[in-house]
Every structure is written in structure tokens, then in C-alpha cells.
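Retry 2 of 3 after timeout on previous attempt. Resubmitting C-alpha cells to design endpoint.
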């Protein structure tokens, strides 16, 4: 087989990426690559390149050996990415009407986001028709410890997971409120968890306040969060205004969780004490 790659190429594509995609499509379509020479000819990839692609994709778990050991099949790494993308779309579709109502009723920018590594990733943004709307856009990333959206998700993680994910993280100070160490971050998370909401006033941007509530899936895992942000004075415009906004965020988070299949367990009721009679 010649070392020249003969497969179709896009005028704007990246050839190595295109070869990997062609190979993944072939495996997904049922070619186990048990005959490497045949697959190389079919895809227009030289045999050496094909071997390297197989090794790389297997290392990344995009493909895996078939149980009988002859050839390959699509791996759990690629399946997980596809499932995550599908889940994100479901989350966005599920949350959108709730977030839209929250933004309009509260008069504040409302968002839904998830965690990606140690960052909060914004998936939904709805802004009311008012001045000073949030400048956070869909696709924005903010360190989880610096935003209520990220904090309230991490607040419901097991401690060992918090240690594993954030143990080596450098905590950059965005304000005097920013945690500088993992211990300080965990103290903040404990308060968020106890309240069931994460609150911020000038923690990330001076003069901007925020509330966030956790979103749980059907298994009870914290998979996302919803928050509102806006000028600090909006949260204190009237007596009880801040409490009202916090409860609206809590209700929105609960509603999205229910739509994802989460069922809140009722609180246990103590059995009545029987009175002794003489």
C-alpha cells in the first residue's frame, strides 16, 4: 500500500481529523477492521496511519476490542460523549420555559449551566427587557468557585469528589469574597448546601448579585443549576425582595428537577407518642 492518502478530503478540513472520522464511521457501520489491508484501501488511509489511528482511538476509549478479540467496535468513551450531548439538549429544552418565566417574573437575567471539569459552563441564557442585563453568554465558562451556578452544584457533591476534582486547583481571587484555598471553598460550600441556595453579592463582578439553585436528575445527582444575576440594588429594592428572588430560584430549580424525573422524598414524620392512662 502506498504511503499516499487517497481518501476524499474537504477543502477546509484537517486531514488527520478527517481520517479519524472516516475510521470511526466505518467501525460504527460494522467494519471491525479485522482485515486492516481491506479497511485501509476502502478508506484511502495507509496501513501505518490506520494502525496509529486505531491505537489512539482505543487509548481514548472511542473504540474498543470486540469481546471475541477479533477487531473493534465503538467504545464507551464515544458513547459517553454522544449521551452527554443528548442529555445537554434535553436539559436545555426542559429548562427553557422555566428559565424564561423566571427571568421575566424576577426582572433579572436567568441562566442554566453544568460543570465541565472545574468550570461552570453556561447552556441557557434568558434576559428580561430591562437595562443592565447579564453579559454572560451561552458557552461562557467561569471557574466554579467564582459563580453561584458552579458552587451550588459542587455543594451537593461527596467530599471525596470535591477533594479529587479541586485538590490541585489554584484559586484565583476575583474579589475579597473569593475562596483562596480548598478549605475556604469547602466552608463556602457547606453554607450553600445548608441553605439549599448559593448567594453572591459582588463575589465575581462588583455590584452584581446572584442566587443559584441545584437541579437534580432522576437518580438524585446534582447535574446542573439555575441562577439569576443582576445589579445588587435590584435585590434590595424593597423589603423582602431578596428573599422573594431566592424562593423564585428555588422553585425554578425544583420544577426543572421534577421535569428531569427527580422525585423529592417526603420528610419523615415521627410517630405520635401514645399517652399512658392511669
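Retry 2 succeeded. Sequence:
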Amino acid at each position: 500500500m502506498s504511503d499516499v492518502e487517497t481518501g476524499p478530503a474537504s477543502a477546509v478540513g484537517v486531514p488527520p481529523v478527517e481520517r479519524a472520522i472516516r475510521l470511526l464511521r466505518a467501525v460504527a457501520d460494522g467494519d471491525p477492521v479485522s482485515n486492516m489491508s481491506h479497511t485501509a484501501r476502502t478508506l484511502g488511509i495507509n496501513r501505518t496511519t490506520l494502525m496509529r489511528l486505531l491505537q489512539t482511538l482505543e487509548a481514548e476509549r472511542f473504540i474498543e476490542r470486540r469481546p471475541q478479540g477479533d477487531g473493534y467496535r465503538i467504545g464507551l468513551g464515544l458513547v459517553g460523549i454522544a449521551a452527554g450531548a443528548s442529555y445537554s439538549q434535553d436539559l436545555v429544552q426542559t429548562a427553557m420555559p422555566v428559565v424564561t418565566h423566571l427571568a421575566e417574573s424576577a426582572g433579572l437575567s436567568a441562566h442554566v449551566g453544568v460543570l465541565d471539569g472545574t468550570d461552570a459552563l453556561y447552556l441557557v441564557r434568558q434576559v428580561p427587557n430591562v437595562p443592565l442585563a447579564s453579559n454572560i453568554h451561552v458557552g461562557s465558562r467561569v471557574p466554579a468557585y467564582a459563580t453561584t451556578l458552579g458552587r451550588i452544584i459542587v455543594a451537593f457533591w461527596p467530599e471525596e469528589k470535591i477533594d479529587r476534582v479541586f485538590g490541585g486547583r489554584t484559586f484565583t481571587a476575583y474579589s475579597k469574597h473569593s475562596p483562596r484555598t480548598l478549605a475556604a471553598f469547602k466552608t463556602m460550600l457547606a453554607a450553600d448546601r445548608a441553605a439549599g441556595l448559593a448567594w453572591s453579592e459582588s463575589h465575581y463582578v462588583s455590584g452584581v448579585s446572584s442566587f443559584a439553585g441545584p437541579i437534580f436528575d432522576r437518580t438524585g445527582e446534582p447535574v446542573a443549576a439555575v441562577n439569576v444575576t443582576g445589579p445588587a440594588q435590584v435585590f434590595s429594592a424593597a423589603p423582602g425582595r431578596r428573599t422573594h428572588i431566592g424562593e423564585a430560584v428555588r422553585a425554578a430549580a425544583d420544577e426543572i428537577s421534577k421535569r428531569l424525573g427527580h422525585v423529592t422524598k417526603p420528610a419523615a414524620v415521627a410517630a405520635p407518642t401514645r399517652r399512658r392512662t392511669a
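Attempt log closed. The beta strands are 63-65, 72-74, 109-116, 119-126, 141-143, 198-201, 208-216, 222-231.
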